[in-house]
Write a structure and sequence with these properties.
The chain is mostly helical. The chain has one domain. Helices cover about 85% and strands about 0% of the residues. The protein has five helices and no strands. Helix 1 packs antiparallel against helix 4 and helix 2 packs antiparallel against helix 3. The longest helix is centred in the C-terminal third of the chain and has 38 residues.
Amino acid sequence: MEYENQCAAYPHEFLMTNLSVFHLLVPLVALSSDYIYIILAASLGGSILALLWIVKKARITCCAGSKDTALIKAHWQQAWTRSKFLLMGYAISAGIFLLGWFVASSQADPNMFDTLLAVFSWIAVIPLIFIVFALFVLSTVSSARAKRGEFPKKSALALGSEAE
């Protein structure tokens, strides 16, 4: 039972590792480097690979013949549901950045282009920062619940296992 609870907490810990490394640590390194765009692109790529791993585990563990229990399946699915918010944050930030790019492109003065692009870049990061911190808190709570053997709230698998 203790092993099952540890396995159920792993998806949330994996998501928190993704958030810590690719959204906090690597961007700090990038800001102190001359290769900021390359490092940030690698960070985004690493984060997307981690999210793909989460979706793979959420889908595979739900297939028939899987050895994972309903508790583990439910927590992988919850980690994927939460990961969708991160993807939405990427989309919102990209939309704000593209809006800034179009506004900056309409400027005749090249200095104004650079200034507007810098301002919109910082504004574009704000929604992503809020989502990352919210996901970190939610994943910490979910990890603690998983370690106690509790199903995620509003889980269809949890409702099905109570009926058994």
